[in-house]
Amino acid sequence: MPPATSPRPWLPVSPVFLTALLVLGGCAHTPGPREEASAPAPVREDPRPPAEDAPRAVLTRFLDGVEAGDWEGAWSLLSAPLRARYTPERLHEDFTREPLAGERVRRARLVVAGPVRLTATGAEFPLGPERAVRLEREAETYRVTGLE
To answer: What is the mean pLDDT of residues 103-130?
Structure first.
């Protein structure tokens, strides 16, 4: 009688095959209840821009308008009291005649990228100890009230 042979309970597997199986199958780790409880909460980005962006954008548009000679656009960004006193043509005349107007625009351009101080009524871009480019809050937007 021939010796009894039992079927092999396992097949020989090469190390290369095992490595490929692990790589292709992935070695995903499923966190347990303790790990899930201690995981940090996901950070949620606030979709609203920072409060300082609004006055910075208005001042930048105003300065761009003045430098490009868009007096209508620049005038539209002035505060209500200044719009009542000026017309776009008068704004152009004053900027042309005032010897320090170019210097004021240059200084305002420098501070627009710097810190902005939000106040109860508007925003200020400091120019020095007692000087600032000022904007007032009007109807949910900012308007330019002064360049120093």
So the answer is: 93
